[in-house]
Every structure is written in structure tokens, then in C-alpha cells.
């Protein structure tokens, strides 16, 4: 099941209105201009992972509830079989599969991510995102160019990077093939 943009955008609008937040307040919270925020809230623009993460954080809710309209309900443990998980396609062909969508009170958001190889991106600056907390990315297959502010590192299978995701970070697949990696986004304890 992949969440539909219009449904997610509707939930974002409803939460903003329920919490009496202005579009300006949400634009500030999500790091967007008011026009960009309005386009996302109306479903006219794609919803990036960082945008969704920050919106859910602002609302004090689990990102999965924002995406699906259902609150996670499992405690103890959760199993996701190979190739399963909540599919989220949000950034230029990147595919995210949330690996614990039904687990309640998560302290981290685990994703299996597939970054497409895009030839035109190889000579362009890597788009940088940032969100509160920390993140760990472990390469499963393919090769990944990881950017952290002005630094870059090329990573291969078995390589891992751990970083403060409040700083600008981004990645692209390199060497003519997609890259699959495990990404674990750790919640910012200071924000709790």
C-alpha cells in the first residue's frame, strides 16, 4: 500500500486546522516558503520525506498515522518480510519502504531505501536535506555518494555512515546502478 498524496495532504491540512496553526507556522516548521507549503498541503506538490517527518513532528504524531490515517498499534515486536513494508515514493525516484509501520511508540524510523542511478545527477551538487535527530545509513547493494554539508564520501556494500541529520545531508547512487541501503532515522530526544 502506498499512501496517496491527496489523502496525506488532506490529513496535514486537517491537523494544521485542528491545532490552530497558520500556514506560515507550518511553513516555518517544515522549512518551506508559504507558497511551497500551500502547494504541498493542497496535494499539488510532492511530499518529501523531510517535509513529512517535520510535519508529523510538529503535530506530535507518528509519521505513519500522517501517511495512512491509522495509528500504529503493535507493541513488543513487529515483523516485515523481505520486500514488504509501507512503500513511500517521495524523492526523484527514491523508494522508501518503512520497516515498522505498525509498531507503536517507535524511537526510530527504519527504512529500506533504493536510490536510483541518475546519470544527470552525477555532475550536479547533491540536494541536501535536514531534519532533527540522527541517522544511520548502511549500504546493502550498489554504491552511494553521501554528502554532509561540503564533505562527500563514496560508500559500498557493508559501509555505514552515522550522522547528525540536523545538518545538510544527501545522497545519490553512483557507478551506473541503483543503491539499496538501510536508513534508520533516530528521533531527536530533545524535541520529545
**What series of H and E elements makes up the topology?**
HHHHHEEEEEEEEE
Task: State the end-to-end CA separation.
Answer: 29 Å
Alpha plus pi helix count:
5
The side-by-side strand order for the widest beta sheet comes to 1-2-3-9-4-7
How many structural domains does the protein architecture include? Answer: 2
Mean pLDDT: 90
Radius of gyration based on Cα positions: 16 Å
User: In CATH, what is the class of the largest domain?
Assistant: Mainly Beta
Percent of residues in β-strands = 25-35%
Sequence stretches where pLDDT stays below 50 over 5 or more residues: none
CATH topology of the largest domain: Jelly Rolls
Number of strands: 9
CATH superfamily of the largest domain: Jelly Rolls
Task: Please provide a written account of the structure.
With about 190 residues, the protein is α+β, with helices and mostly antiparallel strands. It contains five helices and nine strands; from the N terminus they run H-H-H-H-H-E-E-E-E-E-E-E-E-E. A six-stranded antiparallel β-sheet has the order 1-2-3-9-4-7, with no helix packed on it. The chain has a three-stranded antiparallel β-sheet with strand order 6-5-8, with no helix packed on it. Strand 5 and strand 6 form a beta hairpin. Helix 2 packs across helix 3 (about 35-40). The model has no long low-confidence stretch (mean pLDDT about 90).
Amino acid at each position: 500500500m502506498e499512501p496517496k498524496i491527496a489523502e496525506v495532504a488532506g490529513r496535514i491540512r486537517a491537523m494544521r486546522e485542528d491545532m490552530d496553526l497558520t500556514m506560515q507556522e507550518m511553513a516555518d516548521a517544515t522549512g518551506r516558503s508559504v507558497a511551497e507549503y500551500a502547494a504541498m498541503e493542497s496535494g499539488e506538490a510532492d511530499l518529501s520525506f523531510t517535509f513529512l517527518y517535520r510535519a508529523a513532528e510538529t503535530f506530535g504524531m507518528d509519521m505513519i498515522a500522517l501517511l495512512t490515517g491509522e495509528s500504529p498499534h503493535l507493541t513488543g515486536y513487529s515483523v516485515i518480510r523481505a520486500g514488504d513494508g509501507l512503500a513511500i515514493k517521495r524523492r526523484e525516484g527514491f523508494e522508501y519502504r518503512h520497516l515498522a509501520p505498525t509498531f507503536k511508540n517507535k524511537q526510530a524510523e527504519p527504512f529500506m531505501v533504493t536510490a536510483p542511478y541518475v546519470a544527470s545527477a552525477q555532475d550536479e551538487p547533491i540536494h541536501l536535506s535536514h531534519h532533527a535527530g540522527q541517522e544511520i545509513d548502511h549500504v546493502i547493494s550498489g554504491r552511494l555518494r553521501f554528502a554532509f554539508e561540503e564533505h562527500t564520501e563514496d560508500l559500498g556494500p557493508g559501509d555505514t555512515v552515522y550522522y547528525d541529520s540536523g545538518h545538510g545531508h544527501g545522497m545519490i547512487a553512483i557507478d551506473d546502478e541503483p543503491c539499496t541501503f538501510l536508513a534508520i532515522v533516530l528521533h531527536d530526544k530533545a524535541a520529545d
